[in-house]
Specification:
Blueprint lengths: L6 H11 L8 E2 L2 H7 L2 E6 L9 H9 L4 H5 L2 E4 L3 H13 L3 E6 L4 H9 L3 E5 L3 H15 L2 E2 L6 H17 L4 E5 L4 H13 L5 E6 L4 H8 L23 H8 L2 E5 L1 H15 L5 H11 L1 H6 L4 E6 L12
Parallel strand pairs: 2-10, 3-4, 3-6, 4-5, 7-8, 7-10, 8-9
Antiparallel strand pairs: 1-2
Helix pairs in contact: 1-8, 3-5, 3-8, 5-6, 8-9, 9-11, 12-13
């Protein structure tokens, strides 16, 4: 069946955004390899512009706007990395950007959104309030709405991670954090054509396990009342991302808050990099007994998706 994007779209996105984004490095750790019982390769998107992978999709979307649409600006709602990424992307193109931010969003991420030049509009917490505020501003200004994950151009941009990763390391499988599913959808669709047979596993907090429940039921089950420190993974799968997760993600593995905290600390201590909780979920899965027992793979790629963490609110 057709999906939101294909390999050609992802390759075109790589050419489009290439002059503006970093080719993030891949790190390894013998200690973490020993704990996992296999080789681990960490794709460090926390070194990406804006501190997270999100700039790839946001920029791919912004660069494809017509001149008329670009002049009216772009808008999104975000409590963190996507808002900063869209602000950065809009700045690269030199167009206006508005980010609707729910009250209570992490201070470090709000500061990043503002620092990249976005106009911030506050709203009440909750998906309905966020979307209603965006809809009102879109109607008033004609700005283009660019969602954080459920958009073909965004998915294609995130898929460029896979193109780089398979060139940087020989992998048997890949573990990717999952929230709304934009990143894992792009990666899975790229690998389905580029490396057929290389399985992609999703890593998800047990406290925000809509992807695991959807995969088990064979139908999309919306996220309800997520409870996890991995704030970037609290969103629900969307209409474009769910079919890819259903058909091209081998399995969804969930981990506890304690496992996420421990993995986050391991990354800081062993890799010597600052990873946010959402980025630690992949390592938490790789170290879990369930993954070690069920998945046979000698060389595992893990995406460290971001490093925008509030240093005044560390989980330890």
């Amino acid at each position: 069946m057709p999906y939101a994007v294909n390999l050609a779209d992802i390759q075109a996105a790589a050419d489009r955004i290439g002059p503006h984004v970093h080719r993030s490095p891949v790190l390894t750790s013998r200690t973490l390899d020993g704990w996992a019982g296999r080789r681990l390769f960490f794709k460090c998107e926390l070194f990406q512009r804006g501190g997270a992978f999100k700039i790839r999709g946001a920029l791919n979307a912004v660069l494809q706007l017509s001149e008329a649409a670009a002049a009216r600006g772009v808008i999104t709602h975000s409590s963190g990395n996507h808002g900063a990424a869209l602000a950065l992307a809009a700045g690269i193109r030199g167009i206006p950007v508005t980010v609707v931010v729910p009250r209570g969003a992490p201070a470090v991420k709000r500061a990043a959104i503002e620092g990249y030049g976005a106009t911030i509009v506050d709203c009440a917490p909750g998906q309905a309030a966020r979307q209603a505020t965006c809809d009102r501003i879109c109607a008033e200004t004609g700005a283009t709405w660019i969602p954080s994950y459920d958009h073909p151009h965004v998915i294609a941009g995130q898929g460029t991670i896979a193109l780089e990763f398979v060139e940087q390391a020989e992998l048997d499988t890949m573990i990717v954090p999952i929230g709304g599913g934009g990143m894992i959808s792009g990666i899975a669709l790229a690998l389905a054509e580029l490396r057929p047979g290389l399985p992609v596993f999703a890593a998800e907090p047990a406290g925000a396990d809509d992807a695991a429940r959807s995969k088990a039921a064979g139908r999309l089950i919306p996220q309800e009342a997520p409870a996890t420190i991995a704030d970037g993974l609290r969103t629900s799968l969307g209409g474009h991302t769910w079919p890819v997760v259903r058909d091209h993600v081998a399995a969804v593995h969930t981990v506890s808050e304690d496992q996420i905290r421990a993995a986050m600390r391991h990354i800081w201590e062993r890799l010597k990099v600052v990873a946010e909780p959402s980025a630690a979920v992949g390592l938490a899965v790789a170290l879990s007994s369930e993954f070690r027992e069920r998945v046979e793979a000698e060389r595992v790629g893990i995406v460290l998706c971001g490093g925008n963490v509030d240093l005044d609110a560390l989980p330890w």
